[in-house]
């Protein structure tokens, strides 16, 4: 692997990988430094990978802090390694654990820097970010969860009317361009060993989106239920030259759709899983969406925080 990507001599692989939603990540140390070896669970599309790698190169050049893409000597991002499968490589980034309590000003400035890099992209926005789960599916998920004795079943069933009403706010996106699309606390991290800017990870899911939709996502995630934090984040975004303006509930469509599908997927995985430890992981995933749920009242808080800042 080190030879295939020209990573230096005397490679040493960490004993255990880190497990993410999309794949496993191994730390490789060589004479040239430390690297992240990513093994995706699903076979990546080479064209999509080339596009997201080019996007990451542009962001890095413009000062966004992220692990650099490492290519083979022939310029390839993907490489099939015997005994491993298809892998891709990044420079290693030492980061702190996920933290929704990050400085909201730092988050706002980071998102502004990301939005300053405009990269066109083709194709429609993924339905994950635009389409509702739907009333029938929500009710079916709740019924199946209750019947199966899911630990989250009662909470989910109680929230179904709110989730259905919330999805009525979803509206078509505006003009799209390439966006990160996954700016949750897992992927926006504080650096572990310095006072520099936040590090943005996991760009593989970047794709077409209306960038304004990312603002409610980070205001919900890092606002953590505090309107003052939401306002501070949005104000920092504007002060740093952020290109987008959040003006109404329709701008929260990407947040509403994405949260809904995250909960939906977690429920389905729990229902279809038989391994006890894996089920516990899926239940924890669902709990994130039902213990601190996105509701119409929260959407109103997000919009009000933005409008108040914008009117100053």
UniProtKB/TrEMBL annotation:
Positions of the Aminoglycoside phosphotransferase domain: 17-243
Superkingdom is Bacteria
Q: Which InterPro entries match?
A: Aminoglycoside_PTrfase, Kinase-like_dom_sf
* One Pfam family linked to the record: APH
Coiled-coil stretches are: none
- Annotated stretches, region: Disordered: 1-22
The protein depicted here goes by the name Aminoglycoside phosphotransferase domain-containing protein
Give the source species.
Ornithinimicrobium tianjinense
């Amino acid at each position: 692997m080190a030879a295939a990507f020209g990573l230096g001599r005397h490679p040493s692989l960490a004993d255990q990988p880190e497990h993410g939603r999309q794949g496993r990540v191994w730390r490789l140390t060589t004479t040239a430094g430390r690297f992240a070896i990513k093994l995706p669970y699903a076979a990546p599309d080479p064209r999509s990978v080339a596009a997201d790698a080019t996007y990451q190169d542009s962001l890095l050049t413009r000062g966004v802090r992220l692990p650099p893409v490492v290519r083979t000597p022939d310029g390839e991002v993907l490489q099939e390694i015997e005994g491993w499968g298809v892998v891709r490589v990044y420079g290693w980034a030492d980061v702190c654990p996920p933290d929704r309590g990050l400085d909201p000003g730092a988050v706002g400035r980071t998102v502004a820097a990301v939005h300053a890099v405009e990269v066109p992209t083709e194709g429609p926005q993924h339905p994950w970010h635009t389409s509702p789960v739907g009333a029938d599916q929500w009710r079916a998920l709740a019924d199946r969860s209750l019947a199966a004795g899911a630990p989250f079943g009662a909470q989910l069933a109680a929230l179904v009317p709110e989730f259905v009403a919330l999805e009525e706010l979803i509206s078509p996106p505006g003009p799209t361009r390439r966006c990160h699309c996954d700016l949750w606390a897992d992927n926006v991290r504080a650096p572990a060993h310095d006072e520099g800017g936040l590090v943005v990870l996991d760009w593989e899911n970047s794709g077409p989106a209306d960038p304004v939709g990312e603002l409610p996502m980070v205001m919900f995630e890092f606002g953590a239920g505090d309107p003052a934090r939401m306002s501070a984040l949005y104000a920092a975004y504007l002060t740093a030259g952020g290109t987008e303006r959040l003006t109404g509930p329709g701008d929260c469509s990407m947040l509403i759709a994405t949260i809904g599908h995250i909960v939906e997927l977690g429920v389905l995985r729990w229902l279809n899983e038989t391994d006890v430890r894996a089920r516990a992981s899926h239940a924890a995933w669902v709990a994130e969406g039902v213990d601190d749920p996105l509701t119409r009242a929260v959407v109103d808080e997000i919009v009000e925080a933005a409008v108040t800042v914008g009117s100053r």
